[in-house]
Amino acid sequence: MRSNDGTRTGGEVLIDQLAIHGVRHVFCVPGESYLAALDAFHDSKIALTVCRHESAAAMMAEAVGKTTGRPGICFVTRGPGAANASAGIHIARQDSSPMIMFVGQVGRDMREREAFQELDYRAVFGSVAKWTTEIDDPARIPELVSRAFHTACNGRPGPVVIALPEDMLAERIAVPDATAFEPVETWPAPADMSRLQKLLWASKRPVALIGGSRWSEAACAALGRFAERFALPVATTFRRGYLFDALHPCYAGDMGIGPNPKLLARVKGADLVLLIGGRLGEMSTQGYTLLDIPEPQMKLVHVHPGAEELGRVYHPHLAINAAPTAFCAALEALQPPNEIAWQGEAATAHADYLAWTEKATPQPGGVNLGEILVWLRENLAPEDIITNGAGNFAGWIHRFYRFRKFATHVAPTSGSMGYGFPAALAMKILHPERKIVCIAGDGDFLMTGQDFATAVQYKLPVIVVVADNGLYGTIRMHQERDYPGRVVATELKNPDFAAYAMAFGGYGALVEKTADFPAAFAQAVATGKPSIIHLKIDPEAISVAATIAGIREKSLAGGGGKSRTHRN
Ligand SMILES: Cc1ncc(C[n+]2csc(CCOP(=O)(O)OP(=O)(O)O)c2C)c(N)n1
Ligand SMILES: [Mg+2]
Fold first, then answer.
1. pLDDT tens digits, residue range 296-306?
2. Whether pTM exceeds 0.85
3. Rounded distance from Cα 467 to ligand 1 centre (Å)
4. Is the separation of the CB atoms in 362 and 336 below 8 Å?
């Protein structure tokens, strides 16, 4: 309760700082360890969403950070709450998303005794969060929270963890507020841009690869104009397809898992790679085989907002320490050569992309997930959003869905199962007018499926499409490649997902034939309820291009074996 003697509790000071820094949504699972902060939410304009599991609360916060560029916020309780939330912290780290997790802590007078649920947060999150701290003195809340917002956003964005001793939150204090933060822009130097222009003028086969965070709708549009003026082929890296309009005449495709072989050859054979915002991790490089390490076979221009990422794996010919937002704005001033040596290549690359993604591949069984993705791409609006977690089912999204607008694909580059559903809830909260479709695997969905209760409680009518193959399919695929026929721990006995949705108060439908999907989807939209469309997928339909039997046969014939294959 607010007093009128000029003092506030630590909890009140904290929630006031969040409002000052522009926070509108917070996700939590409550705990007695931060009651004084919860109490301050009571009279605040910030919308607080209470979740059923901390992993969902943390992933919802991460999704807000990923898509808005401003820290997503979650509150969780001590040891068990923080441990449950840790998957979200890892996603924010690998996906370079700004996020702040506030976590309760035992009273200051009990620390170091292993008091109830006590955790040493600096030790536990030290290597995964960008910064971890504990606030001992409520007078320092404005300073440390301001630092948290700046740290989460500046350079390469990432997660911050702040522990809050419960007696510190309850202490009364008179302290001035901080002022609102703004992320610090990182501009390329004019000399960088003129070196880049010279490199482009000297190139015969350039290609741009884009990824990472610190993009915006304006930056994507600026890059589109630059690509068009230079007739430059542009490919997106793993799960960053939304950074470039798939129907832009320069779009060359997705360099994620199982890319178009023609695109792979194009990148390998390029004499200049312009890498903007991304880090070229294991997925986008097909297991670090795309570019030689540390000296790439071609000239590499690496543009990244985090200085520490430049030269970390690849030695760039030209390193530009800049955020994609600022860099793409600066691209407007670059002039193409009079004669573009690679004229026609963007058109060829785009034609290759369209051909590769045009038609769903044939699949065993009654439901072809590829045809469903093609239907969704033709029937959803460009601003509607697709979310997903991890599993082979995502392969059909990467291959067949065509993202047109910024932040319309919300998925973990870190490959964390369970992400898609909470991300969908966060997107519905941010964009109630858009359709939000979560494509999930049967394994994937049930990792955070308990928060279907949250969808119903807050009336968030997202549509979940569960691709049920009765398998941890990705692992089964790797198992058949490396240990053919030796099936262990990859088979699943699933619930009736439509009944599951209805038991929570949502809508559910079972689809056993591809042709029945549009009607089920229309019905889900019409009910206005959180919905699950349960797709019965033949387990043999293990990936866009392979069957289990085919993989096993190949492995037994000696074509497979214990090769290092890509993970998902
Ligand atoms: C949190 C987490 N646990 C485990 C894994 C390892 N893993 C990757 S994909 C996968 C199976 C996914 O199964 P499902 O969601 O049913 O999709 P499918 O591959 O069958 O299409 C597993 C267990 C992971 N990526 N993330
Ligand atoms: Mg599955």
1. 999 999 999 99
2. yes
3. 12
4. no
